[in-house]
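testing teh design pipeline on a random one, pls ignore if ur not involved
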């Protein structure tokens, strides 16, 4: 990432399959939304089932409590209890979110130049949350869109 010189940087899991025109669509979306610093997409598993980590809220202690103790699973559409996976947001619409999944994170290089890269102190898991948090703290929007994955 430090050596990159492009306008955008994409973090993509190595086992991810993308549609033929995904990259053209996500770049066009970002070009049309210059206030967005990061973009996620609607992700599905190998059986075509929506992956809720496509749209996530910041896992504050309260939000994590609701998830750990099953309240978010009991009330996934609740604005109070469903904040971990933002279950109250339509998965088929574009939304501003708190956290992008590291499985597919398209970011502007200028955003990363401003807020920093992935924190290398993380061995695995959570670095996408940390980076998303720093992007938002930098006053930059994070968006997830189902039309581009």
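output:
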């Amino acid at each position: 990432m430090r050596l990159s010189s492009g306008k955008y940087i994409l973090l993509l899991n190595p086992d991810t399959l993308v549609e033929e025109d995904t990259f053209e669509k996500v770049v066009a979306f970002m070009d049309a939304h210059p206030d967005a610093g990061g973009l996620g997409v609607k992700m599905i598993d190998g059986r075509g089932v929506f992956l809720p980590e496509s749209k996530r809220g910041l896992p504050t202690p309260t939000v994590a409590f609701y998830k750990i103790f099953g309240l978010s699973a009991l009330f996934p559409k609740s604005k109070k209890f469903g904040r971990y996976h933002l279950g109250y947001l339509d998965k088929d619409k574009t939304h501003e979110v708190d956290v992008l999944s590291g499985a597919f994170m398209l970011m502007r290089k200028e955003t990363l130049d401003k807020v920093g890269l992935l924190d290398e102190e993380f061995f695995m898991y959570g670095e996408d949350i940390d980076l998303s948090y720093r992007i938002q703290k930098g006053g930059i929007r994070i968006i997830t869109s189902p039309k581009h994955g």
